[in-house]
Design the sequence.
């Protein structure tokens, strides 16, 4: 452990809060500056007309990683947020009219697959689960939960690397999943998670099946009060640990000494601006945006400027009159036709899926506090191209949104709106997300691990990054880990 430092964390998203928790544990003097009036970053919440509407992630997996942040803050997670398993984890609705319920627990899921398909596919799920667990264990200890400095770091844990190679981790995800399951519907439900990494199953490496492990094997969870409660609870915990959080405090730029080292951050502009001095800064905003808007004269790494970014999404969240269909689950995936063709349209051609697959999340189904009696909260996400695609959102938004509303209504969900918010790629860009995607850089091989923009920049000693744009990557579990890794980097800096 190095010397105690004054550390400013820019952003009270999950990455920033996780970093603050681990930094406080090491005895540093930590201040978080957050531009919004609430914590959460991309895991925000809108409260209006008696509804509480999450506008960020809907899936919590690996809650032990969230608990690790609470422990670092010296807190008991259960004192701040109650985490409950979701079962069924997903209702998968296919174009042929069939329905699969993804159940919590290996035994329950095995029986569901036997009902849905046959005994052979059910037996295959056991083998698939064993493979996923082995893959996860090898990746987590050597390549995810650790800071990586160069491609040579891929070689050092050679036993895990060899194990991953033998398990087929560097083959294509779709082919690996198909080696277990003959039923194409099962192939879809166990490979669609590659979208979280910004890739189609046919282009993603099998190593990204760890995402499938996190939800389909380890389970999906939800906090009471909505997903935002993860951030709200963790913010409470770090404040009790001595961290100062300053809300409604946007940073105009990162201030450096003449030798390039960190001096602090500037809040606001003009006469009313304020310098918050620091020895180190942890930066939670999207990495390329942080370079462009907060550093100015320091160019972002080439990968952040010119890399391949994940697809984006059209997000419709609403408080509506009425209740969902009796067979609806917390998470509902409605798969469109032409699986591979949809990905080609979205990722390769940059156009809307011809028959879009959508996610419908009903937070109020399991938590009545999120909506008034007789009403529902509904969260509808359609994957779309990011701003590098061919959709002119200023012209096409209303038409596409109308089509989405019509589809949701046809599926039997209530759509009589009391309050609503709509986010398209242009909105995500205005909120500080590069290329208008909340899913950051895609996890191609050469944008993963040592090839992903690092969480430190040698040109700016004392500056550390956290969040989905840096190590280890996208998703709530990975962002929580990124906060811990950022804190380790600050400790390394303090030890010099």
Sequence:
């Amino acid at each position: 452990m190095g010397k105690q430092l004054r550390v400013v964390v820019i952003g009270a998203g999950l990455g920033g809060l996780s970093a603050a928790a681990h930094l406080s544990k090491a005895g540093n003097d930590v201040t978080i500056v957050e531009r919004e009036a609430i914590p959460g970053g991309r895991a925000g919440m809108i409260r209006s007309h008696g509804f509480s509407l999450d506008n960020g992630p809907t899936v919590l997996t690996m809650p032990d990683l969230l608990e690790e942040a609470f422990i670092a803050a010296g807190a008991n997670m259960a004192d701040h947020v109650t985490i409950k398993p979701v079962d069924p984890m997903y209702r998968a609705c296919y174009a042929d009219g069939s329905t699969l319920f993804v159940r919590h627990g290996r035994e329950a899921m095995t029986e569901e697959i036997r009902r849905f398909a046959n005994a052979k596919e059910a037996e295959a799920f056991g083998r698939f689960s064993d493979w996923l667990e082995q893959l996860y264990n090898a990746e987590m200890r050597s390549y995810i939960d650790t800071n990586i400095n160069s491609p040579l770091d891929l070689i050092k844990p050679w036993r895990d690397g060899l194990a991953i190679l033998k398990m087929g981790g560097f083959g294509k995800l779709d082919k690996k999943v198909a080696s277990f399951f003959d039923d194409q519907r099962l192939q879809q439900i166990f490979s669609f998670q590659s979208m979280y990494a910004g890739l189609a199953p046919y282009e993603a490496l099998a190593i990204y099946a760890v995402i499938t492990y996190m939800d389909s094997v380890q389970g999906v969870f939800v906090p009471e009060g909505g997903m935002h409660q993860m951030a709200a609870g963790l913010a409470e915990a770090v404040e009790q640990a001595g961290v100062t959080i300053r809300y409604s405090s946007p940073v105009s730029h990162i201030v450096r000494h003449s030798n390039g080292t960190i001096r602090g951050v500037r809040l606001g502009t003009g006469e009313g601006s304020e310098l918050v001095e620091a020895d180190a800064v942890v930066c939670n905003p999207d990495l390329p945006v942080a370079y462009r808007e907060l550093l100015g004269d320091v160019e972002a790494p080439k990968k952040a400027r010119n890399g391949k970014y994940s697809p984006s999404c059209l997000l419709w969240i609403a408080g509506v009159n009425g209740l969902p269909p009796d067979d609806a689950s917390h998470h509902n995936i409605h798969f469109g036709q032409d699986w591979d063709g949809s990905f080609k349209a979205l990722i390769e051609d940059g156009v809307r899926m011809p028959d879009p697959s959508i996610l419908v999340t009903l937070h109020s189904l399991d938590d009545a506090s999120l909506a008034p009696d007789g009403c529902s909260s509904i969260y509808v996400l359609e994957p779309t191209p990011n701003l590098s695609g061919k959709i002119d959102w200023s012209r096409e938004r209303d038409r596409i949104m109308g089509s989405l509303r019509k589809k949701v209504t046809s599926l039997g969900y209530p759509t009589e709106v009391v309050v609503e918010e709509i986010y398209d790629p242009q909105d995500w860009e205005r909120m500080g997300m590069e290329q208008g995607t909340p899913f950051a850089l895609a996890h191609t091989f050469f944008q993963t691990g040592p090839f992903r923009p690092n969480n430190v920049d040698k040109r700016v000693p004392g500056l550390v990054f956290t969040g989905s744009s840096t190590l280890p990557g996208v998703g709530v579990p990975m962002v929580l880990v990124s906060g811990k890794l950022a804190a380790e980097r600050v400790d390394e800096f303090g030890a010099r």
